[in-house]
Design goal:
single chain, 122 residues, mainly beta, Hypothetical Protein Aq_1857, Chain: A, four-stranded mixed β-sheet, three-stranded mixed β-sheet, 2 helices, 39% strand
Length: 122
C-alpha cells in the first residue's frame, strides 16, 4: 500500500481591491480637509446607462457593515461590498481637462463602455 502526499497548492495573491493615483489622493485629501471633513467617500456600482453599470460615489459619516475599507496613500475610501467583485484591481484617478475635471476609473474587469462613457459592462 502506498500513500501519496501532495503539497498544498500555493495560492496566488489577489490584487488590491482598489488603488489611488497621486492625483486622486491629492484631490481626495483636499476634499476631506475642506467641505467633506469628517466624512468618507463610498464607491458603489449601480445599474444604470446603456451598458448596464455605472460608478456611484457618495459621502457618508461612517462605514456601513457592508463596506470594504480601502486604505491607500494615507487615505481611506469605502467600497460597497456588492461592488467589490466588479472593482478588483481598479485604479482611481483624478483628471483635469480643458472643459471637465473629475474622478476616473481604470477597471481591468470592464469588457466595454457605452459611447458616451457613462456606463460599462463586465
Amino acid at each position: 500500500m502506498s500513500t501519496t502526499i501532495t503539497a498544498p497548492r500555493k495560492t496566488r495573491a489577489l490584487p488590491p481591491l482598489m488603488t489611488l493615483t497621486d492625483a486622486a489622493a491629492d484631490r481626495l485629501r483636499a476634499l476631506y480637509e475642506k467641505g467633506e471633513q469628517g466624512k468618507l467617500l463610498r464607491i458603489a456600482v449601480k445599474t444604470k446607462g446603456c451598458s448596464g453599470l455605472s460608478y456611484d460615489m457618495s459621502w457618508t459619516d461612517e462605514p456601513a457593515p457592508s463596506d470594504e475599507v480601502v486604505s491607500d496613500k494615507g487615505l481611506t475610501v469605502l467600497v460597497d461590498r456588492k461592488a467589490s467583485l466588479f472593482l478588483i484591481g481598479t485604479v482611481m484617478d483624478y483628471e483635469v481637462k480643458s472643459l471637465t475635471s473629475g474622478f476616473t476609473f481604470t477597471n481591468p474587469n470592464e469588457k466595454g463602455r457605452c459611447g458616451c462613457g457613462e456606463s460599462f459592462h463586465v
